[in-house]
Task: structure prediction
Amino acid sequence: MVQLDSLKREMADYANACGFDDAPQPTHVPGLSLVRSRISTEFTAIDYQPIFCLVLQGSKQTRIGERLHRFGALQSFIVSLDLPATACVVAATPQSPYLALALDLDITLLRDLASGLKELDTMDNSAPDTALVMGDADPALIDAMARLFALRENPMDIDVLAPLVIREIHYRLLLGDQGSALRALVQPDGHASRIARAIARIRRDYAAPLTVAALAREAGMSVSAFHDHFRVLTGTTPLQYQKALRLMEARRRLQAAAGSVTAIAYEVGYESPTQFSREYRRKFGQSPRSDRSMTA
Result:
């Protein structure tokens, strides 16, 4: 079994050697990121993709809608859907930084594994009341994530062994205590998979006008059922979800200096630059122009 103190030292040394700052950074292993933060942070917007995160040291808070989740050392969490959220590191110092490993989840791989696991038929496959589930970390998953991280410096090991370890991690997640969200997601006609398809549509056409009725129709659900299940899983409504995507994309473009504030407002789907500026300030705590000047 992995030695936790050794793993944490290796993570900190790798972050230093690679010149990582205090934001999540990809490792040389595809899909595996290292999070090292030496300071506590304020809540900032984050766009989760389906992910498994293992916290080794420190603690973090994530807010989804009105729900606040806190994760500490030797806890893990799964985000099963694409999910705009806000997050902050609450326990970190230069001497004892927040440390975590995060692995992108492959939904196609999960479905492939699920098709051959008869054990899933006897497990709870109902969707949980949120797309983020958390709990104490499974020692077997800690070991598997450590083995995946250990491959980081050897390209041949990455090519040959990483797919095997990633498959193992997905298998253990499906069967684990936190796997209910993933088991619900791989059911093609379940509520979670229908909401996932609607989310994919919103993300694809985030700048276009969308109606809840059209999204519900595509999901094969009544408007009321679709709205209720969407809000339960994501903590927000479909139109609020779309607004969050628009604002986060606008911020990305502003920070990349990719056009004027007015042009970006129109590009992400706003008809009124004034409304855009008002909602941008409400979400990020400063105006679009102020945000741009800070990164210029």
